Amino acid sequence: MNRIFGTSASKKPKPSLQDAIASTDARIASIEVKVKKLDGELARYKDQMSKLRNGPGKNAIQQRALRTLKQKRMYESQLAQLAQQTFNMESAALTTENMRNTMATVDALQASNREIKKQYGKIDIDKIEDMHDEMEDMLERANEIQESLGRSYAVPDELDEDDLEAELDALQFEEEEEGTSYLADINKVPDFIDEPPVELSETPTHEAMKATG
């Protein structure tokens, strides 16, 4: 039976929408050639009728022209139908292509959405918050260490300007007293001399004049 009638596998595939559009365009081109040929015949009949007088001969040519004109109108009607069919098929093809692009976009967005969910599923918000807290603690400890290392051991944390000025005045007063006592010690008799020295006057005494005399 399969050898006689064949199998379903031997059936030709159904034409696609693009194949149908191409076939319709070919039919339109063929009919346009026929319409152009009919236009030429009508022009020849018109020229013949313009040269003939009214009579059987002119009437015969007029009947041929009428048949040719009817045939042309039929072809033109077919052209209009085929043009509308082509427009509908092209619109359907465009819609189909847009739907394919839309589905491809949707598939890409869904894949991206799944990937984003997969990646974000690996992130623990609590761990991130704990990490921020640890960083803040470490920075605070580092600041405390820096402040401790930069602390001066000889200078108090808070110094009063009035106390400093008073201390400076006291130092200046002590220096003045030390200078005065140093000048006073120049004329002081040392402790190992029993009697103070005799001061000599500028004019010689009477005993000194006798001795020299």
Q: How would you concisely characterize the structure shown here?
A:
By secondary structure, this protein is an all-alpha fold. It has helices at 2-5, 17-51, 56-121, 125-149, 161-184, 206-212. The chain is rod-shaped and about 165 Å long.
Secondary-structure-based class equals mainly alpha
**Largest sheet data:** none
Percent helix, as a range, is over 70%
- How many individual β-strands? 0
Ends apart, CA distance between termini: 188 Å
Q: Identify low-pLDDT runs.
A: none
How many H/I helices? Answer: 6
General shape: rod-shaped
Mean pLDDT: 78
Strand content bin: under 5%
What's the Cα radius of gyration?
65 Å
Order of helices and strands: HHHHHH
Molecular structure report:
The protein is mostly helical. The protein has 6 helices and no strands. The chain has helices at residues 2-5, 17-51, 56-121, 125-149, 161-184, 206-212. It is rod-shaped.
List keywords for this structure.
mainly alpha, about 210 residues, rod-shaped, 6 helices
Q: What's the topology here?
A:
Blueprint: H1 2-5, H2 17-51, H3 56-121, H4 125-149, H5 161-184, H6 206-212
